[in-house]
Amino acid sequence: MKAFVTLCGTALVALAMTACTPAPPPPPPDTHDADVKAIQDNEAQWNKDYVGKDPDKIAGYYTDDAVLMAPGMPSVHGKDAIHGALKQMLSDPAVSLRFQNAKVDVAKSGDLGYSQGSYQMTMTDPVTHKVVNDHGSYVTAYRKQADGSWKAESDIATSEVPPGPPAKRSK
Predict the structure, then answer these.
(1) How far is 106 from 87, CA to CA, in rounded Å?
(2) Closest by alpha carbon to 161, among 118, 128, 129?
(3) Distance between CA atoms of 157 and 119, rounded to whole angstroms?
């Protein structure tokens, strides 16, 4: 009888402990495909905004603490500095930029994503004042914002055009 009471008591304690353990939360919904499409759509609109040459709209694609690294210029840190660099770049009448992603993916967590692809850019060389064409590769790292939008945290481009000869210095 004593063993039966001990067994019942042990079962009661185990049942009480199990009943008090909360059920694990359900897994978050799988938004991978929708997030990939959102980044692709974002980049399509970004290309259209480059045609309009509006630095305010283009800077809006970056987080406040973003970094932009582009060929031929020092890296630019922060949305305000990126806006200033874009304003200067877009003042060039010859400037145009198009980019096309070849791959977009989003982390399982759903808060980080990236795109990689190619770009083509036309601009005026500040030294020779001639219009030059550039092309290369890029990688953009995105972070999902509280409102569900995606903004670039790191935007890095690498030119595939070999550098020209060093500029001649005047004496």
Answers:
(1) 30
(2) 118
(3) 8
The residue among 89, 90, 84, 66 whose CA lies nearest residue 155 is 66
DSSP 163: P
Alpha helices in the chain (DSSP H): 2-20, 32-52, 55-59, 79-90
What does the pLDDT average to over 93-119? 97
Could you read off the pLDDT of 34-55 as tens digits, one per residue?
999 999 999 999 999 999 999 9
CATH 3.10.450.50, domain 31-159, yes or no: yes
Which residue, among 48, 34, 49, has the nearest Cα to 113 in the 3D structure?
34
The residue type found at 103 is K
Q: How confident is the model at residue 102 (pLDDT cuts 50, 70, 90)?
A: very high
Q: Which letter does DSSP use for residue 24 in this model?
A: P
Which 8-state DSSP code applies to residue 26?
Answer: P
Tens of pLDDT, residue by residue over 155-164, are 999 999 987 7
3-class secondary-structure state, position 168: coil
